[in-house]
Write a structure and sequence with these properties.
The complex is a heterotrimer of chains A (331), B (388) and C (190).
Chain A (H helix, E strand, L loop, with lengths): L9 H7 L17 H13 L3 E5 L3 H6 L11 E3 L5 H15 L4 E7 H7 L1 H9 L4 E7 L39 H6 L5 E6 L3 H13 L4 E6 L3 H4 L6 H10 L6 E4 L2 E5 L8 H5 L13 H20 L27
Parallel strand pairs in A: 1-2, 1-3, 3-4, 4-6, 5-6
Antiparallel strand pairs in A: 5-7, 7-8
Helix pairs in contact in A: 2-8, 4-6
Chain B lengths: L2 E4 H11 L4 E4 L6 H12 L6 E4 L3 H13 L4 E5 L1 H6 L1 H9 L5 E6 L13 H5 L6 E4 L3 H18 L3 E6 L7 E4 L4 H7 L16 E2 L5 H33 L7 E4 L6 E6 L2 H11 L7 E5 L1 E3 L3 H7 L5 E6 L9 H10 L7 E6 L11 H8 L7 E2 L13
Parallel strand pairs in B: 2-3, 2-4, 4-5, 5-7, 6-7, 11-12, 11-14, 14-15, 15-16
Antiparallel strand pairs in B: 1-8, 6-13, 10-12
Chain C lengths: L1 E8 L4 H14 L3 E6 L9 E9 L14 E4 L19 E5 L13 E5 L1 H9 L5 H12 L4 H8 L5 H16 L7 H8 L1
Parallel strand pairs in C: 1-4, 4-5, 5-6
Antiparallel strand pairs in C: 1-3, 2-3
Helix pairs in contact in C: 1-4, 2-3, 2-5, 3-5, 4-5
The chains are: A alpha/beta (331), B alpha/beta (388), C alpha/beta (190).
Chain lengths: 331, 388, 190
Amino acid sequence: MSETTVDIDIAALRRKQPRFRGIEAGHRACLGCGQALAARLMTEAAGPDVTLTNATGCLEVFTTPWPESAWRVPWMHSLFENSAAIAAGVEAAYKMQGRKTKVIAMGGDGSTFDIGFQALSGALERGHNMLYICYDNEAYMNTGIQRSSSTPHAATTTTSPAGKARMGKRHLKKDIITIIAAHHIPYAATTSVAYPSDVRKKVRRAMAIEGPTFLLIHAPCPLGWGHEGNLTIEVARLAVQTGLFPIIELERGQLANAMPIRDPRPVTDYLKVQNRFRHLFADDLRAKEELEHLQALADYNMETYDLRGEGPDAMDTEAADTVKRRGTRWA
Amino acid sequence: MPLALEGSQALARTVALCRPQVVAAYPITPQTHIVENISRLVADGVFDCEFVSVESEFSAASVALGAAAAGSRAYTASASQGIMLMSEVLFNIAGLRVPMVMTCANRSVGGPLNIWNDQQDSMAVRDSGWIQLYCADNQEAIDTTIQAYRIAERTELPVMVCVDGFTLTHTLEPLELPSQEEVDAFLPPYAFSRSLDPAHPISIGTLVTPEHFSEVRHAHHTAMVKAIAEIEAADGDWQALSGRSGGALLESSGPADATVGVLTIGSIHGTLLEAMTEYPASEPVRLIKLRCFRPFPAAAIRAACAGLERLVVVERALSPGSGGIVGNEVRAALSTMEQPPRVENYAVGLGGRDVPLDLYPRLLEADGEVGGFSVFDVDVSRLAPEDQ
Amino acid sequence: MLEIRIHGRGGQGNVVAAYLLATAAIGEGRYAQAFPAFGAERRGAPVVAFARIGNAPIHRRCQVLQPAFLIVQDRALLQVPGVLDGLKAGGGVLVNANTMPEEMDSGDTDVVTLPATALATEYLGRPVPNTALLAAFLSLTGMLPVTALTAALGERFKGKVLERNRALVETAASRVEPGRWQEVAHAASA
């Protein structure tokens, strides 16, 4: 056999290699599912040496119709409200076994903001070395679009329907990230499927931290929000660009970083593309008041997190890596 | 020489001897002393485990489940409302066939609030798919806890060791604690066949559709029924090693030619045993002490009742509107006998009411309605007039 | 089998007293059992604990309704209804009191007093009467050597505290008539 030399461009080779995906294609998520995308981005960043726990919800249902499973990493679903506690148990066991495998707990907004909040708070307080990821699609989508404490004000759901007497959900979206930050955990952040690099970066950052970390990923649900499945990224981006979903990082409870918004958009740009807010565009004085209210909420975020950019920035809402379909943007 | 130990203290030391790697704990009376004593052993460096002090019983069961699924031996303990709060997880643990051991320090379930002993809590989760073993005294609780790990790990079913709250957990008595070598010999290092391991990734707790769900339940039921042999084997092997039985599936005592039997579950047994000598005028009976309630040892119960004309089932819980839980199941088991004894059924000692020695003659004289059930020793004058 | 009921107040170490008594007996190779009348009482409320000592395994789990002896850690409890209930004829009552309580100065019940709180304060610096009462009780009944109590205390205390307890036990035991209840105790144990 003759010796041959091959010049290998490692960087190019790496780009050609498919990323390790903890979640495989072929699962049964809806078209344009934000949660499926978020889970894929997460597992790409997390790599193979992780164990996942999953609260009851769409992600669990569409990835594991027995005897099939879309997961290539150890994965466990127990109940709706105990993803954090199961992860805590796995982490405690791994610690005693001398394993370094990171444990990632996953849940939707219903299991995180509502029914599993106590178990989550307890796990954060106890300082388990685990990352908790909340896929925030702002309602109980698995059961058919019921309001959660994450549902935005004025959004219509099947349990907060807009009607003659009501303008959708009467209450505010729970400020979960502030509550999580109040646990003074090393790292808590928000991100959005509209910014995949941001998602991956934050997952990697959280993975590297010894201790409890939390990531809130805004992930549209086309069915629940009332938009076409091919608009998921655009809708998610508008939530950020309007200031309604601020992208921030908190270290030990203190604001450490925020994605600047270049040219903030009015909230109506975001609201008008979703059926869940359609009633706000009726010729109704109360609808106008609610639109003003939602704009005020966005303005509050702009102020609180100082989101307004000071000119073009490589990391702002326009320049940060976004998913571009055929190089064009829809909005 | 035996040690003078409070039940809870003995259980904590027994748990440590079993070397669980993760213990999840949440306080509830009368279970609290158990986890307090475990945390003391951990603090003193006697017991090396991850002691996770959780924020609810729900998370206690969940943390134990996570740890067991990750391949570690796990332990938790609770009682009463705690069992109720964790009941969703209990069904899940059993349904996922994840082995672990927990102690239920039996207590009534509110409301109204009552912190004392009966067995409503564990009886309420009898259909969760856990093996349930009821202890008559603290020595049985020690020996049963050790056996429980062996049974759990061989059957891949969780085991609930039921120990009467206060009556046993808070009673100090002379107890034999086995040596670490004995327990290690009985419980070799454990490896869960389906653990969460990145080298062999599997999915646990998937969605199972109607196409497969009946088969899953069938498998669980079959495993429970087969566990009877493991429970007997564990007790036999432990007896060979330690010289003590934990109580097998059930145990009978009293004259072999007795025609009257009294079947109890839990710590009432000891009181009735002594009452037999205290009240010699009463007819000597065959005392049947039921230790294994899940799986339900119907064949063993039929064998224990052979020759009886009358059986009084005495239990510490009830299914309101139906009757005695143990009583009804015993009746069903006996119904296939050619000459089954007639069965009377009472609930006694509810919510911690003392079970005195003279319960024995009064039970035998009561001659209750065959096929019926009643709460024993009820003084209706204590009820509000409109409820009498 | 000898049955003893101990009355006290929450915080006085009532359960500990019963546990110590049973521990002392078990240490001497006897069979024994001790448990509280399980309550939800807070500090200061009347509480009850039970102890049984015998020469054979004890299986019964019921409360002690007919004790041969009562140990009362607070003389004011004598006025609480039920405290003296069921005491066996010829039985004895050991009361923590400096003087003979008037209400007890009659009948066929033999009442013995011990200034247990004062002794405990003197020896331990804490007004906890249980150890002194147990020492006196063992001396009165002669059922166990007082060193059995010291050994039981050794499982709970160490060093100087144990030394002080040992001194308290010796003093308290000497303050009562040794063997005064020996016959009754012996009869009840048989």
